[in-house]
């Protein structure tokens, strides 16, 4: 097993401390485990060499609120799941470190992060509430504690989810960079005496790395955390209008090099891997091999909102199942692959597996035609197209990634096969002596044949 020695970390307070013995002696395998895919196998988590699990997400605005629900009944539905998942992991996988992720792409930065950093009082309240959560200061925790926290602010300094609907003020980059550093400093000072971890998730696209442009401030940010999860996926996303790889070896290497050049120590880096493919609706004629470099329809509107002309497909086995010859009646409104249930006429089976008749169920990119009522579904059968992509991919050996173009429905696909996962481990993680690997997310893997996770663990 490779050994990655992490250096001593100097905090903003000038206090020197070492990271945990586990981090100092062995590479990390960090898995996000999210509330939208909550049924990952505990046996799989415990048996694949996973060192850290990060439960995702708690929304940041719950932690800068004066009234924090001690029973965890008034918060987001997923929050109670986080506590139950923590308890289950601690019982079944006692050697795995379990952290809580705060933030995420769906987190509203205006009422969350920005409110948190606007005053010392708000920042102190956030850290106080976070401390209570991480240390299990509620009866529901039954004396269990988190081992750390992952701060997933997407993205301080600009290009957040509201980048068009709430344009950045001229001084926002400076204010959010300073506030981000101060937030991490405060959390680090609170957690480090007990050896709890502080990690951050950071963007993979250079255009989103605004908070790290100032080398001195980047240095203080990096010094305050135990490790950094590089989101080296979604490098192609809905803000683009020409198809490209979303997680190629070439693109992943460029991101890793960018952070190394900004002064991030290699031992602190966890290279990110995606357990899903991405797709986009191509406009016009596309004759390029594998669909790379073709124009797409607008993937977001004038306010930056999703047009649902693009999306993702997880590696879960259910997404490759054949459509059954006969269907069952939906139980509690559940439908789609894995259930065998079809919605009644006039109702659509959403990509999330629920029957309904709203645009969220029937709209383009959100509907599963074979499991929907007759003529009620708009758009293509994404699952059929995905199976075609898996059967006949185009291997871009230069960039290091698979693509596929479906001419029938004008759909472009991009994803990582196992061989490029292994190549990233060898050429990037090992060759550059990085601290380990990270993947989003556990429940998106094919639990029956977890070949991506197996490649990471090996």
Entry keywords:
458 residues; alpha/beta; TIM Barrel; 8-stranded parallel β-barrel; 5-stranded antiparallel beta sheet; 12 helices; 17 strands; globular; disordered N terminus; GH; signal
**Which sheet architecture does the biggest sheet show?**
8 strands, parallel, barrel
What is the rounded Rg? 22 Å
Task: Give the CA-CA distance, first to last residue.
Answer: 9 Å
Order of helices and strands: EEHEHEHEHHEHEHEHEEEEEHHEEEHEH
* Top-tier CATH class of the domain at 28-231: Alpha Beta
CATH architecture of the domain at 28-231: Alpha-Beta Barrel
Number of helical segments? 12
Strands in their spatial order, largest beta sheet: 3-4-5-6-7-8-9-17
Low-pLDDT stretches: 1-24
Report helical residue fraction.
Answer: 25-40%
What is the chains' assembly state?
single chain
**CATH T-level fold name of the domain at 28-231:** TIM Barrel
SSE-based structural type:
alpha/beta
Proportion of beta-strand residues? 15-25%
CATH superfamily of the domain at 28-231: Glycosidases
The average pLDDT score comes to: 91
Secondary structure tally: strands: 17
């Amino acid at each position: 097993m490779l050994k990655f020695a992490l250096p001593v970390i100097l905090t903003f307070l000038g206090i020197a401390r070492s990271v945990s013995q586990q981090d100092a002696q062995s590479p990390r395998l960090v898995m996000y485990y999210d509330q939208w895919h909550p049924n990952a196998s505990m046996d799989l988590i415990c048996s694949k060499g996973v060192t850290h699990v990060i439960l995702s997400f708690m929304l940041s605005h719950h932690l800068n609120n004066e009234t924090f629900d001690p029973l965890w009944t008034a918060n987001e539905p997923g929050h109670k799941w986080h506590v139950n998942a923590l308890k289950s992991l601690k019982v079944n996988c006692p050697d795995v470190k379990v952290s809580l992720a705060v933030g995420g792409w769906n987190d509203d930065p205006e009422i969350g992060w920005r409110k948190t950093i606007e005053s010392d009082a708000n920042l102190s309240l956030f850290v106080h509430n976070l401390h209570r959560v991480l240390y299990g200061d509620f009866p529901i925790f039954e004396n269990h504690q988190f081992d750390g926290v992952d701060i997933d602010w997407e993205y301080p300094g600009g290009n957040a989810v509201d980048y068009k609907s709430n344009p950045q003020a001229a001084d926002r980059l400076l204010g959010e960079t300073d506030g981000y550093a101060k937030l991490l400093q405060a959390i680090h000072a609170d957690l480090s005496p007990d050896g709890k971890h502080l990690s951050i998730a950071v963007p993979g696209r250079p255009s989103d790395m605004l908070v790290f442009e100032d080398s001195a401030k980047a240095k203080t940010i990096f010094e305050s955390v135990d490790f950094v999860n590089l989101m080296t996926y979604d490098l192609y996303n809905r803000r683009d209008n020409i198809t490209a790889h979303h997680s190629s070896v070439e693109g992943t290497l460029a991101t890793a090099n960018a952070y190394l050049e900004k002064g991030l120590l290699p031992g602190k880096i966890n290279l990110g891997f995606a357990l899903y493919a991405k797709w986009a609706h191509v406009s016009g004629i596309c004759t390029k091999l594998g669909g790379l470099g073709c124009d797409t329809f607008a993937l977001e509107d004038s306010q930056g909102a999703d047009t649902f002309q693009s999306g993702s497909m997880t590696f879960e086995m259910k997404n490759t199942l054949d459509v059954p010859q006969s269907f069952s009646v939906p139980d509690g409104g559940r439908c789609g692959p894995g259930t065998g249930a079809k919605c009644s006429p006039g109702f659509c089976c959403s990509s999330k597996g629920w029957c309904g008749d709203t645009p969220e169920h029937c709209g383009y990119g959100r509907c599963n035609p074979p499991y929907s009522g007759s003529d009620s579904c708009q758009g293509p059968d994404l699952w059929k197209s995905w199976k075609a992509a898996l059967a006949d991919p185009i291997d871009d050996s230069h960039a290091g990634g698979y693509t596929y173009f479906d001419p029938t429905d004008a759909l472009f696909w991009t994803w990582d096969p196992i061989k490029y996962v292994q190549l990233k481990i060898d050429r990037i993680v090992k060759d550059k002596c990085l601290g380990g690997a990270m993947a989003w997310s556990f429940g998106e893997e094919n639990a029956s044949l977890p070949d991506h996770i197996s490649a990471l663990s090996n």
